[in-house]
Write a structure and sequence with these properties.
The protein is of the alpha/beta class and 206 residues long. Helix content is 18%, strand content 28%. Strand 12 and strand 13 form a beta hairpin.
């Protein structure tokens, strides 16, 4: 028998069983010797969970129903591993905790995220910290000048005209910078809005 993987903290088994009438081998897990009809091998004695879960030959054997693979942890019930779940099962408890913590942190950040909302009633030059700009042009036409696209790559602005007057809200790129290849974008109607992003050279309407 091939040399077995030593693990003093071993408390889990991934047992494969031959369901055919032939000798079988797992080509990309060569430390596991061939096993005959009805014979079993504990794969964790030879390889890590990660190596097992990435074995293409093992997945093929499971899909062909030539073998079954069962996972058992100490003091817990046996669980059958399918070819679809084998990657997921290869995640260690510590890695699972890390993934859970990262997901919880991301959810918390999303819940706590707030948009910076600025309401303007006259000409305004945006800054990189702006998110949402509500333009009230009741008194006069308004021009909103964007920051340099070169210095604002990836930034997104949400700009909306909130009044019902005939006055317009003009969104203007800095200097000769364009918006969808035009020099300006104009909002003429109440509740009309645009969302724009910088690609580092010019601005684009999303």
């Amino acid at each position: 028998m091939a040399n077995q993987r030593r693990d003093k903290n071993f408390r889990e088994s991934w047992t494969i069983k031959n369901k055919t009438k032939h000798q079988l081998a797992i080509g990309d897990l060569p430390l596991v010797d061939t096993f005959g009809p009805g014979e079993k091998r504990d794969l964790l004695k030879f390889y890590s969970r990660e190596s097992i879960s990435h074995s293409i030959d093992l997945v093929s054997l499971i899909d062909a129903k030539w073998v079954t693979l069962e996972k058992k942890r100490k003091n817990k019930t046996t669980k059958t591993i399918t070819s679809k779940s084998i990657i997921e099962e290869g995640i260690t408890p510590a890695e699972e905790d890390e993934i859970t913590d990262a997901l919880n942190a991301a959810i918390k950040d999303a819940d706590e995220a707030e948009f910076d909302i600025t309401t303007v009633t006259s000409d305004y030059t945006t800054v990189n910290e702006d998110d949402v700009i509500l333009a009230n042009a009741t008194s006069a036409n308004i021009t909103i000048t964007l920051p340099s696209a070169l210095l604002a790559k990836g930034l997104i602005f949400y700009i909306k005209k909130i009044d019902s007057s005939a006055n317009t809200v003009t969104v203007d790129g800095k200097d000769s910078e364009t918006i969808d290849d035009a020099t300006t974008a104009v909002l003429s109607n109440q509740y009309e809005s645009i969302t724009i992003i910088s690609d580092g050279t010019e601005w684009w309407i999303l």
